[in-house]
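hey so u asked for the seq, here:
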Amino acid sequence: MAQTGTGIAVTGIGVVSPVGIGLPAFAEALFAGRPGIGPLTLVPTERLSVRIAAEVKGFDPAALFDPARLGLLDRAAQFALAAAREAVAASGLSFDAELGARTATILGTGVGGISTLDDSFHRLYAQGSNRLHPVTVPKLMISAPASHLSMEFGLTGPAFMTSSACASAGHAIGMACQMLRAGMVDAALTGGTDAALTLGSLKGWEALRVVSPDGCRPFCRTRNGMVLGEGAAVLVLERMDRARARGAEILGEIAGFGMSADAKDITAPDAAGAGRAMAAALTDAGLAPEDIGYVNAHGTGTTANDATEARAIHGLFGDHARRLMVSSSKSMLGHALGAAGALEAAATLLALRHGVVPPTIGVVEPDPACALDVVPNEARQASIGAALSNSFAFGGLNAALAFRRV
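ran it, structure tokens below
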């Protein structure tokens, strides 16, 4: 259980998302219930049966990186760097040699540099080229975003990536919190990034038959699948005592972290496993179920996930589940895979800080199999003291983060 004084302060947030680039734009769109899902434009759609996605619009890498550096950066790394720049600027931290050595860089990703991989395979197999770009491997490697962030800010402390499918960012943020609590580091850049809107990736998701052709409607009786998205979110974390001592603006507290494995099925979700992760996060935070006012759900919009997550919430919270507000940001953001948990952590922090719960949009008919207050279609004013954010991944890999308002 978390002890007094071990809370982790969030002192910076940076976002690149389908509903807006930068935290103010992200917040405004979330609270307005404005979707980032629309026609797919990043790849040709002639060979696709699903032609919608949640793309990041208006992202201009040439305006952010010089040409020599841009050649080293996959789209996922570009997103991570843009989000990190915003987060670090907001935190007010300056990384001298001493603090740089005491700062961790821990990001999550589901598929890493898959845009580079897809482009390289097209060049090799479709175009018949016998040569690939000399930096193909360092550009596509899953660890690249963490490396680029460490180099950008001179962070010489621990640096690595977590990759646990859709729980990747949740695990990354949790690991950063644990390192801060243990005194291994004084600060951390953490979160997640993914940019998997490629022809090869989309065809793979189509084959699973879990992708919706017409929109993401989590917890709605008419839901018919997820919508793929992309983006990144980066948080600057510090121990609460250090953040207060330097007079930092504290955007929220990460109070607890829980994780579990279903150990049952590679794709089917399990309510017991999800419940264990949420319960572990509450125990770690020293919170009782009735202390939670809001759950930012994993909420993918698939038939299996939403009903299973609802059972897990009812199982853990009991009668309190009727009073909980539960919404899915994926109804607006799509499913950004390894970045989803970071984007949703940012959404949860915004809900606590502003006293506004973002809605689940697209709900046309409540599903009796879920029986939750899913904050349908319109944001809700609500003063919340504590909240959970869930990330449940293929392979039965689960992560949950508990947040407190500061």
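The CA atoms of residues 49 and 206 lie 8 Å apart. DSSP finds 14 helices and 15 strands in the chain.
lmk if thats what u needed
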